[in-house]
Amino acid sequence: MPDTLLAYDLGTGGNKASLYDAEGRLVASTFVPYDTQYPQAGWHEQRPEAWWQSVVQSTRQLLANAAADASSIRCIAISGHSLGCVPVDASGQLLREATPIWSDKRPAEQAARFFERVDPAGWYRLTGNGFPAPHYTVFKILWYRDHEPEMFGRIHKVLGTKDYVNYRLTGRMATDYSYASGSGVYDLLGWDYADELLAAADLPRGLLPEIVPATEILGGLTSQAAEALGLPPGIPVACGGVDNSCMALGAKNIAEGRIYASLGSSMWIAVSSARPLLDGATRPYVFTHVIPGMFTSAIGMFSAGTSLRWVRDQLCVNLTVKARFDGRDPYDAMTDLAERSPPGARKLLFNPSLAGGSSLEPSPHIRGAFLGLDLGHTQGDLIRAALEGIALNARLMLDALRQLGAVGQEMVVVGGGSRSRLWRQILADALEIAVLKTNVGQDAGSLGAAAVAAVACGLWPDFSRIDQVHRLESTARPAPARVAVYRQLLPLFDQARAAQAQLGERLAALEIDGGQASGSA
Q1: Cβ contacts of residue 507 below 8 Å, gap of 6+?
Q2: Phi, psi angles (nearest 5°) of residue 15
Q3: I want to staple 303 with a disulfide (CB 3.0 to 4.6 A). Which of 53, 76, 247, 355 is the partner?
Q4: Residue 219 parent element (H or E)
């Protein structure tokens, strides 16, 4: 059988195992989910053993596919969700059954103390870490030190998500530049951990894993791992990369100024460039790319697809029930109805900040809203306004990136939302950019990991082959009449956003229970 590549996309919701041929074509894939635990407010934890078991199960399921041949696999690589904090001892044993993931924000106190010694603006310029600081790995390590000192004293290394799985595969503890860039103590332009930040945190450099290129072979699959996975021992395992950078690679962001949007539960727009795009006001979050010498800089919103899901679940139960009875996707029924509403949804605006504000919003306490409702608005108007509100917010994101560097005139869209023809067209009109849908769809992260494996084992000389993997399926181009509508709406949307942020601040200060409603008979 011809050579193949095994890619793992270790995401927040589960692991996808995918087999690619030497040309980068997807042969087969399978997905095994795992859970996130929320033991306290702000605590988001997963079990590293669950990651490993999902890798084992998804690999065995993949090998059960008639198109898969274990003996043909030339290399393995992983894309892993960011900002992981897995403590292990010198023998590689886990020191905590469940560990904080990227969305965990428990170490607010540790971050605040750190910034008594370090200028926050300078820290951002050095690291490019534009998420709220408590999300970053270093502060979770400091939380371990403050709250679990006995365990902290036994730590040999703190590993990232995919780096822990790589250790289980090869026995080697290491990370790559892209994952290290989310540690909170990494110097983007120095391409190394920053000694001054480690000193400010009072942490030894040796606590963090060595940094190697994403394409470096960490070692061969150990006999123990091979037996668990059902694979031959000795298959080379590349270091792989953080999910943001692997997805950028898989979405064709391989050259200066290329841009892509991930449209899923959340949404972000990312630009690849030889210099990080940094701005103290809008705070793009930057990761080192898996491509040597490049960076991927992004601005995101926390609730894109999840806002649309809220509209589905709360306002479109009738459509959902009928769609399921008819054997259709409820979102298809929703977009059919939204198409009957004109651009601008009859002057109805929607703010998609249902999950609060990202770095682009005026306040983290901003919340979502429909604005301009009247008795003439229809269900279709509500759905279209939701699609347009997400697109208008994305326009503000893109404009912020455009002010920081050269951005291309076309944008690849990946993720679940890319399936919607109407949504792609709304994005094209609102963002005034050509929106491309390719065959890659929701597999950008997996393709990026496969490309890392291909270069690592010598099947590909470099990453330029990615362009040949993508097949254009459709292009949505801005239509002047609709562009004119969204140009009128954008300043009003921005004005409403500012007002919502002020209202959100005041609501957050109220001493009113924000939990479930209750009442008496």
Answers
A1: 365, 367
A2: -115, 135
A3: 355
A4: strand 217-220
Q: Which residues have a Cβ under 8 Å from the Cβ of 492 and sit 6 or more positions away?
A: 349
**pLDDT at position 517 over 60:** no
pLDDT digits (tens, 9 = 90+) for 70-79: 999 999 999 9
Half-sphere exposure of 2 (CA within 13 A, CB side): 10
pLDDT tens readout for residues 223-265: 999 999 999 999 999 999 999 999 999 999 999 999 999 998 8
Residue type, position 356, single letter: G
From residue 116, give the alpha-carbon distance in Å to each of 109, 120, 196, 481.
Answer: 11, 9, 14, 52
Distance of CA 518 to the CA centre of its chain: 36
What is the Cα–Cα distance from 260 to 269, expressed in whole angstroms? 6
Residue 518 is predicted with a pLDDT of 46
- Residue pair 244/296 in contact (Cβ under 8 Å)? The answer is yes
Q: Could you give the CA distance from residue 113 to residue 4 in angstroms, rounded to a whole number?
A: 49
Q: Which DSSP state fits 513?
A: -
Residues sharing a CB contact under 8 Å with residue 412, sequence separation 6 or more, in sequence order? 251, 252, 253, 259, 260, 261, 436, 437, 438, 440, 470
In one letter, which amino acid is 163? D
- Give, for 33, the enclosing helix (H) or strand (E): strand 26-33
CA distance 364 to 252: 32
C-alpha to C-alpha distances, 191 to 188, 279, 340, nearest whole angstrom: 5, 20, 52
Q: Centre a 10 Å sphere on the Cβ of residue 92 and count the other Cβ atoms it contains.
A: 15
What's the sign of the alpha-carbon dihedral 507, 361, 263, 328?
Answer: positive
CA atoms of 397 and 347, how far apart (whole Å): 22
pLDDT, residue 264, reads 87
Q: pTM here?
A: 0.92
The residues, ordered by sequence, that sit 6+ positions from 161 with a Cβ below 8 Å of its Cβ are: 10, 48, 51, 80, 81, 82, 84, 86, 101
Q: What does the alpha-carbon distance between residue 253 and residue 360 come to, in Å, rounded to a whole number?
A: 22
* Neighbour tally for 451: CB within 10 Å: 31
**Measured between alpha carbons, how far is residue 355 from residues 21, 110, 133, 226, 365 in Å?**
39, 24, 18, 41, 9
Give yes or no for a contact between 258 and 466, defined as CB atoms under 8 angstroms apart: no
Kindly state the tokens that stand for 440. 């890659």
283 three-class SS: coil
